[in-house]
Amino acid sequence: MSETRATVAGIAVATGHYIGGEWVDSSTSFEDHSPLDWNIILARVSRGGAPEAARAVDAALAAFPAWSALGPEGRAPYLHRLADLIDRDVERLAAVECLDMAMLEESLRQRVIGRGARNFRAYADLAVDYVPRRWDSQGTHNTVLRMPAGPTVVITPWNAPFMLATWKCAPALAAGNTVILKPAEWSPLSAAMLMDLADEAGFPPGVLNLVQGYGNEAGAALVGDERVRRISFTGSPETGRVIGRVAADHLVPFTAELGGKGPLIVLDDADLDAAALTASRMYDDAGQVCLAGTRLLVQASVRDEFVARVTAAAAALVPGDSRLALTTLSPLIHPDHLARVDGFVTRAREAGDHVLFGGVRWRPDGLWYEPTLIEPHGNDAEIVQHEVFGPVLTVQTFGDDAEAAALANSTPYGLSAIVYTSSRERADALGAALRAGTVWVNTFLVRDLTAPFGGIGISGLGREGGNYALDFYSDLKTYQVREGTTHG
After folding, report:
1. Are residues 269 and 254 in the same domain?
2. Is 290 a catalytic residue?
3. Are residues 348 and 404 in the same domain?
4. Which tens digits make up the pLDDT trace of 292-318?
């Protein structure tokens, strides 16, 4: 056992793996840089692989019988204590996560980190309040029971890492599973802080574990372990396909949220100021949001007015240090990702797409990219059909609502969609036609934790949220008793 820590934002953060209730260091490490200044190495983090993965599954397997036997009522106090500790440490978590992945610190403090506490409370209560389906059929009394599934591997992305880790770990733990969390190597630090809080909350050793490292090393070893009984992943479709093949080989249920290319549809009767303000929000977190409506689909008669409003709103964004309240545009996460985003824009120009504004780095010595709006040469353009995951939007026009739906459904993605209109009738008709896991009308990013969340097409597989998540992390049993069977 060893416990190496780095000081980040004045806070001591563990840089090892958390396995079986102990901090464990590896013999090799990787550097974790800050997107706010790539010259700053925040920490050297343990680089896990097959040995650490196997040890973590050992710990999760050993802890599973006692944790699952507690039942929802016995597990709930642990989850509530952890939620209380998250609330207590919002400022510390926000300070570290801001340096680690560059999301605006004010947003982290006011909106994002607190969602982690709500996740644990919500799933603890949903598990306790579960009412099994009961019915009589063919002379038997029937009940649907949930059984904890077993050790669960959770693999999370580098954007909003703390919130997304809690979004997956909370229902898995509430359902009675033990968990091994593998965060993205580009933003690993808040996951370590979550382990410290779980330890302080009194979680039994092995119930919640952390393995740091690269996806093709630590992640591959974890999903390839035949003892794992559930896998949940958020990331790219390419990696999702790889994990899905392994899960299929082992017959392990698997959920995947794999990104989006959502439409933001503006009808001619819409409140254009409200729609343009929402469009400008697509540049939040440097566009590194899977739910963003990055394809602006605008009815032709209001195209010029709408684009003018979006242009003005984008011009008001302030790039800079994400720790400062004045800043409204954060940098991208990594130099490799900056190159990827810029590559999309470069190829769009070469293909004849029209860059209406932006399309360049904000300054040569940082990872900021200017808010960008592109009018493509056609719907088959790469910039339309592929997820950029940066501050890059496209704008296209349509003639009627049917054409709007056809354009909206014309990519292989289907995670989310946004519609702006003053007509409930048009909204309902268009909403029904859209192929998306979530559709918002005249709003954006309003989330109810009990609602199903997931994608269609290459945006994902399965559903998270509410009882949908608790069912996924459980094995469902139909229990039948013949009428007249007595106790004793």
Report:
1. no
2. yes
3. yes
4. 999 999 999 999 999 999 999 999 999
